[in-house]
What we know:
Elements: H1 2-14, H2 24-48, E1 54-56, E2 61-63, H3 71-82, H4 86-99, E3 107-109, H5 110-126, H6 144-154, E4 170-172, E5 184-186, H7 187-191, H8 194-204, H9 208-221, E6 233-235, E7 240-243, E8 245-246, H10 253-266, H11 269-276, H12 287-300, H13 306-313, E9 315-316, E10 319-320, E11 322-324, E12 330-332, E13 334-336, H14 342-348, H15 352-369, E14 375-377, E15 382-383, H16 395-407, H17 411-427, E16 428-429, E17 432-433, E18 436-438, E19 443-444, H18 451-463, H19 476-479, E20 482-483, E21 489-490, E22 498-499, E23 505-506, H20 508-518, E24 571-573, E25 579-581
Helix pairs in contact: 1-12, 1-15, 2-18, 3-4, 3-5, 3-18, 5-6, 5-8, 6-8, 8-9, 8-20, 10-11, 14-15, 14-16, 15-16, 16-17, 16-18
The structure holds 2-acetamido-2-deoxy-beta-D-glucopyranose (4 copies).
Subcellular location: Endoplasmic reticulum
Protein name: alpha-1,2-Mannosidase
Family: Belongs to the glycosyl hydrolase 47 family.
Amino acid sequence: xxxxxxxxxxxxxxxxxxxxxxxxxxxxxxxxxxxxxxxxxxxxxxxxxxxxxxxxxxxxxxxxxxxxxxxxxxxxxxxxxxxxxxxxxxxxxxxxxxxxxxxxxxxxxxxxxxxxxxxxxxxxxxxxxxxxxxxxxxxxxxxxxxxxxxxxxxxxxxxxxxxxxxxxxxxxxxxxxxxxxxxxxxxxxxxxxxxxxxxxxxxxxxxxxxxxxxxxxxxxxxxxxxxxxxxxxxxxxxxxxxxxxxxxxxxxxxxxxxxxxxxxxxxxxxxxxxxxxxxxxxxxxxxxxxxxxxxxxxxxxxxxxxxxxxxxxxxxxxxxxxxxxxxxxxxxxxxxxxxxxxxxxxxxxxxxxxxxxxxxxxxxxxxxxxxxxxxxxxxxxxxxxxxxxxxxxxxxxxxxxxxxxxxxxxxxxxxxxxxxxxxxxxxxxxxxxxxxxxxxxxxxxxxxxxxxxxxxxxxxxxxxxxxxxxxxxxxxxxxxxxxxxxxxxxxxxxxxxxxxxxxxxxxxxxxxxxxxxxxxxxxxxxxxxxxxxxxxxxxxxxxxxxxxxxxxxxxxxxxxxxxxxxxxxxxxxxxxxxxxxxxx
Length: 584
Ligand SMILES: *[C@@H]1O[C@H](CO)[C@@H](O)[C@H](O)[C@H]1NC(C)=O
Ligand SMILES: *[C@@H]1O[C@H](CO)[C@@H](O)[C@H](O)[C@H]1NC(C)=O
Ligand SMILES: *[C@@H]1O[C@H](CO)[C@@H](O)[C@H](O)[C@H]1NC(C)=O
Ligand SMILES: *[C@@H]1O[C@H](CO)[C@@H](O)[C@H](O)[C@H]1NC(C)=O
């Protein structure tokens, strides 16, 4: 009985004085401002940039960045529905079916294409009923958006054809992996597929996707160090760690996220055990109890699993530093903005105390700069050279959403309002919202990444709309039954939603429902193997991967080029050991 009291006390003390309370009217007013923000950016994209991947908000035109598949529109599709715009959701869903072609000669990041394109299409498919699209009889186990998602995913499969099963980071959508591709992939680029790929497999009955994702996860698990840590870049052919900094940020982040969310989405013990260790199945929903278990696990020790090792070696005063993966010695006392997803993830595991304290650390950085710089030196309390930008990332807002749901503390709404106001003030242009190049002088970059509309705006909106259907708590259509899956019946969205790392919601109920019927379904007319992509005997040529990642401290120029650039395909090792982008 002590734990709940402690949680409350903690939240109270840490929110420095009583948080301002928002009334329902104030929250509704903020939601309107968020919608205006969305439409300013979205309409600017349509008017000035479509069909390019991204809007360039300073020059008011468009450019292809991660592919050439109108990325911003795919990524923003489900946000339209989140904001309640069914008619535009319907228009864009059919526009994409008519215009997007994945059979193109373009080199893409396997990671980014999966989380943004496959993830975005899967979400839109799963929300099609709610969005008022015409549903074919087998929905949610079939449908045109699902076929598009599968079409994109199938073109990523050649990257997984390595001896280890760990994928190359880059693949050519038409030609497969280039023979000159680097075999070095970042950790997140290996371990961030299980949500999308298992969703595809369970909906379609085509097992190859989930199997590829699991094989990569098991291979990665096998490479952890004696003290239970992984580095941030690995050679997928030799299975040797090329960059040995362990932490929770760039290059690694969503790997841990997918172990936890994969465990939740699939009710999968293997994935949870990797992250959390063998656990007690009782009381998983009891925060006070899981908090207690969490602390007990940290002190008692158990076979090496990630959460325990990360808490033991990388956590200092509720910050998380980078450490050498074999020795556990600190290699870089830096907080990266990508790490700000961590408190939200910890709250999903019931570790609310730690999550709240870590969030407060990160929020103090936000308040210092009016945004989160890409890197922040903890001992110096300042930005890090060349990493002073804020490309409108969502992670702190995402954590605020989870923590507000878990605690009801209005401090998290205050962060949301701060974020909205900073973005309006610093980065709004006549044509959209521009990435902040330097938070100290508010210089801007001519980019608006697709995650701004997919994630940042979506999480902000969801933060201020606690009754939104994506927060779960009710089945679709007020508890009515939905037909689904070859004559089966499913209660969709009854179990809430799991967000992929690009904020695309997935419905566990649909997976369970279609998975149940998959055995009975006839083989579909989809080519089971990636057509002619793998040539046995040839050196696997792989690509760099890509996550929103930056390798830390990789050191020497002799090292193979790293594969997880912050911006597409232009990352190089820098003398300071960080990966910077070449171009402007
Ligand atoms: C939906 O989006 C379109 C395109 O921006 C806009 O014209 C329309 O007014 C929006 N509808 C609603 C209900 O917001
Ligand atoms: C893809 O990458 C390979 C290897 O770097 C390169 O040879 C090829 O020209 C690239 N293709 C395109 C379309 O950029
Ligand atoms: C949660 O766990 C605590 C401690 O084990 C227990 O006292 C409490 O009754 C549990 N609450 C619920 C709702 O199960
Ligand atoms: C925690 O780290 C210390 C070294 O700092 C190590 O000796 C100890 O075994 C670790 N404990 C666990 C449970 O990993």
